[in-house]
Amino acid sequence: MWRYPAWKRTAMMLAGPVMHVVLAVAILYAMAVSLGLPNLRPVTEPVVAATSCVGAVCPAGAAGLRPGDRIESVAGRPTPLWRDVIAAVQAAGGPTPVVVRRGGETLTLTVDVARVPQSGGEIGMMGATPQPPPASLQYDPIDAAGATAAFTGELVSGTVTQLIAFPERVPAVVRAIGGERDPDTPISMVGASRLGGEAVERGRWGTFLLLLVSLNLFLAVFNLLPLLPLDGGHLAIVWFERVRDAVRRMRGRPAAGPIDFTRLFPATMVLVALGGAVMLLTITADLVNPIRLS
């Protein structure tokens, strides 16, 4: 293989990780236009779910605030998010103008904000609860492309973070064999298969597909680590040779020969042994004390 040019060797080594990413993206796009993608960053919009009483009075309900109303401003302060509604109401007291969007109309209601004793003083309350954000978001075929790209980026970033933290979580896997299992500990293919089976049994196809996506992205990122015998290790050697030979040419020297892999064999076997040990450890934990779907 060393006889081939660097671009061909690179393309060959990238084929596996790229295919994992392609599969993951294809599944996520299909979810985006059908089941919907999980809302990773739910933002509580200022939409009223219900009105309730504060003590013996119901300021929001008495003022005519209804479920489904979108609160645009409180006392002249714009409220793009529910936390802005809370801040504005807590600072208010007595009759307070509240601008709401109801269907195609914009209405101004006067809410008699109650002052309620709290530790350190009083805060205003009007008695309204926010509409919870959707657990998943569905897109049309065009918007699904951007949503899929953003969601894939979030998952890849999370995968990298998990890999960086992996060594710190190995002791927790050891403790899980004889004690309580932290659901945030690494799992093996056995554990992933068990979770996938549980998801299918319960009809949670979205969970099953996300497990499949996560597995593909993990394999893509893991295989690109610059360690032998992974694809990333071979890529690192290919481009080390390329840069080394470029530097030699700049100095008027001929290109050197290919890296002698036999000299890297001891380090490779150390990594193979460590990987095998971790695999046996996680498989044991998944058999003895598996992580289950909540």
Describe the structure.
The protein has 294 residues and is an alpha+beta fold. The chain has 2 domains: 6-40 and 139-288, no CATH class; 48-130, PDZ domain (Pdz3 Domain, Roll). The protein is 54% helix and 16% strand. The protein contains 8 helices and 9 strands. It has helices at residues 6-33, 59-63, 82-91, 143-178, 189-201, 205-223, 231-250, 261-288; strands at residues 37-38, 48-51, 70-74, 77-78, 94-102, 105-118, 121-125, 128-130, 136-137. A 5-stranded antiparallel sheet has the order 4-3-5-6-7. It has a two-stranded antiparallel sheet with strand order 1-9. Helix 4 (143-178) packs across helix 6. The longest helix has 36 residues, at 143-178. The chain is elongated and about 85 Å long. The relative contact order is 0.14.
What is the rounded Rg?
28 Å
Secondary structure class reads: alpha+beta
Strand order of the biggest β-sheet = 4-3-5-6-7
From the N-terminal CA to the C-terminal CA, the straight-line distance is 48 Å
The counted number of beta strands is 9
* Count of all domains: 2
What do the pLDDT scores average to? 91
Could you name the ranges where pLDDT drops below 50 across 5 or more consecutive residues?
Answer: none
Question: Helix tally?
Answer: 8
Helix content estimate: 40-55%
Largest sheet, if any? 5 strands, antiparallel
Tell the overall outline. elongated
What percentage of the residues does DSSP assign to strands (E)? 15-25%
Order of helices and strands: HEEHEEHEEEEEHHHHH
